[in-house]
Amino acid sequence: MSLILGILFTAVAAVAGTILCPSPSSSPNRNRIPGLALALVALVALNGRPAVAGDLLQGSATVIDGSTLAIAGVPVKLFGIVTPASDATCWDANEAPYTCGRQVTAELTAHIGTERLICERSGQTDDRSGTAVCRMGDEDLGNWMIARGYAMPTADAPGLYKQAGDHAWGQRAGLWAGVFDDPKTWRHAAR
Question: Residue 28 region, left (φ>0) first, then alpha (ψ -120 to 50), else beta?
Answer without folding.
Answer: alpha
